[in-house]
Specification:
535 residues, alpha/beta, six-stranded mixed β-sheet, 20% helix, 16% strand, globular, disordered N terminus, disordered C terminus
């Protein structure tokens, strides 16, 4: 049925030009008698995935939820998919819920979707035009499913030899509690978001201060690695030069001299890295049986031997990643979209996930027709992009299920980008625990790290009241000085070798508020005139 009103249409805006377009559109509608409403509390409370993308209009960037009462839409209008699964425009498919088929956009042309979406019937039809809405077809035909994605990475335990630096293990001096690791997400502002760089720099200094203070208290203190939970390169992904501008030039030598294990977020899937969405299209590097034992494709113990192409600037250099000449570049470690890495000496394992399929409408910040238009073009069609990201998501879940069935380590860190509500209500920690052998469930400490929403807060606790779901999206990359508390997570190991939270949302690892940058953002009438000339 067609609803009488469609409410809570969320319009993500990137940059001052888009904001100006919205401003002019609102003025025009006001003149025509349309009502635009925005509750301040509602505007300020909405989190990433929609208007983190407001972007560059001002240093203080918040998400704006615009509620417009309207009885219909035009074919091709940008609208929200039913169920809040992203945005669509015309001849596109909306994501269904978990285990449900995708379906035509509410603003798709009449009859479009059969043979294009998994279900050819609209869940909601807001279009107007001559004649009634098309009669639903009760037996939509199937469309080709996604081509499987085959991750290629080395499963050899601790092939980076991190344990060689670890204290209190393998006969080394000190105690296992001397070791620690840090977690950040949504940190990559410098080089892509001028007004966000001051925020990222402040969090980077806080991290270095933490390392220094810990070393002063304990000379055996040893930072082992850093986890980076996506949106590593605002606004629209990595390009040549970003590993210097956004990483090496921002963080201290104490930080860049250790491995950083990373995953992709929605902003990493953008126009600066157009090949990232469909890696098998025009691949710059391919893994197959002929090179499966190469360092890039799996070394001594490859996870997969099937043919898989790669085409991203942000992967390891040996897989086609850029900036080989940047110092310490080899320490930025992303061998694939999804992977795992184990350190037996610490009884520790990392599981890295990519579920960006669930936020196709937020790729590049504001979707495949704007900040990720180059990604869409490289894929060739929306169907190809959706199928590619779905295949990556399914491969990620299989990696996690594989590791939970094995349950080889008592300390597990799951690294993704999204809170549960942005990925089909999937809680990755729960998914891991459900797949474990029953006899290991109580003895395994599973921590779940993610970002996307730009604050630091605990999103879930275990039966003992310990935080296990860490929202750590306040690491400085986006979007305004009001995105606090900001900071990072620090984790260590107790005397029994169990990973524990050492610092999270406490003053040693938290910023509230940010220090106001020396310059301020200005927006003049002359700027408006220039904007109008380029719209």
């Amino acid at each position: 049925t067609t609803p009488s009103t469609i409410q809570d249409i969320v319009i993500p805006m990137t940059g001052w030009r888009s904001s100006l377009v919205l401003l002019l559109a609102a003025a025009a509608d006001a003149a025509a008698g349309d009502a635009w409403e925005c509750s301040c509390g509602e505007c300020d409370a909405v989190t990433d995935g929609t208007a983190e993308e407001v972007g560059l209009l001002q240093a203080q960037v918040t998400e704006h939820r615009i509620t417009r009462s309207m009885e219909s839409c035009q074919v091709g209008d940008l609208v929200q998919c039913p169920g809040g699964t992203g945005f669509c425009s015309g001849a596109e498919c909306c994501n269904g819920g978990v285990g449900e088929p995708n379906f035509p956009c509410p603003s798709a042309p009449a009859g479009w979707g059969q043979g294009r979406c998994q279900s050819g019937v609209k869940n909601v039809d807001c279009t107007t035009g001559p004649g009634p809405a098309p009669t639903p077809n009760p037996t939509p035909g199937p469309i080709p499913g996604p081509i499987p994605f085959y991750p290629h990475f080395d499963t050899t335990p601790d092939y980076l030899n991190i344990a060689a630096r670890a204290m209190g293990v393998n006969g080394h001096l000190g105690h296992i509690s001397d070791n620690f690791y840090l977690v950040v997400a949504d940190q990559g502002g410098c080089g892509g978001c001028t007004d966000c760089c001051a925020m990222q720099t402040q969090v980077a200094k806080k991290m270095d201060d933490y390392i220094t203070a810990r070393k002063a208290k304990n000379p055996n203190s040893e930072l082992l690695f850093v986890l980076a939970g996506g949106d590593n390169f605002y606004w629209d992904g990595a390009r040549s030069g970003r590993f210097s501008e956004t990483w090496y030039d921002v963080y201290s030598q104490a930080l860049t001299s250790v491995p950083w294990f990373s995953v992709f977020g929605n902003h990493d899937y953008g126009n600066s890295d157009p090949g990232i969405g469909c890696p098998s299209a025009n691949s710059r590097f391919t893994c197959d049986r002929s090179n499966m034992n190469s360092e890039a494709c799996g070394g001594a113990a490859p996870y997969s031997t099937e043919t898989q192409g790669y085409n991203s600037n942000a992967l390891n250099v040996n897989k086609g990643g850029v900036d080989q000449g940047v110092p310490n570049r080899a320490n930025w470690h992303q061998p694939d979209y999804t992977y795992y890495y184990s350190i037996p000496a610490l009884d520790f394992e990392l599981v890295a996930m990519d579920l960006d399929f669930y936020q196709i409408g937020a790729l590049g910040g504001n979707g495949p027709h704007l900040g990720a238009s180059g990604v869409l073009a490289a894929c060739g069609s929306m169907d190809a992009l959706q199928n590619s990201l779905l295949a990556i998501a399914e491969a990620s879940k299989e990696v996690l299920n594989n590791r939970s069935r094995t349950a080889a380590s008592k300390n597990v860190a799951i690294l993704g980008h999204y809170p549960d509500g942005f990925q089909g209500d999937l809680n990755l920690r729960n998914l891991y625990l459900q797949g474990m052998p029953a006899d290991k469930n109580k003895s395994t400490q599973v921590f779940n790290f993610f970002g996307h929403t730009h604050v630091q807060e605990c999103n879930g606790q275990d039966a003992n009241g310990r935080c296990v779901d860490f929202l750590t999206g306040g690491s400085g990359g986006c979007c305004g000085l009001g995105d606090v508390p900001a900071g990072f997570v620090a984790l260590s190991f107790n005397g029994a070798g169990e990973q524990i939270t050492e610092c999270f949302t406490t003053p040693e690892c938290t910023i509230r508020p940010y220090t106001q940058p020396a310059h301020s953002f200005s927006f003049s009438l002359n700027d408006i005139g220039q904007a109008q000339s380029t719209l």
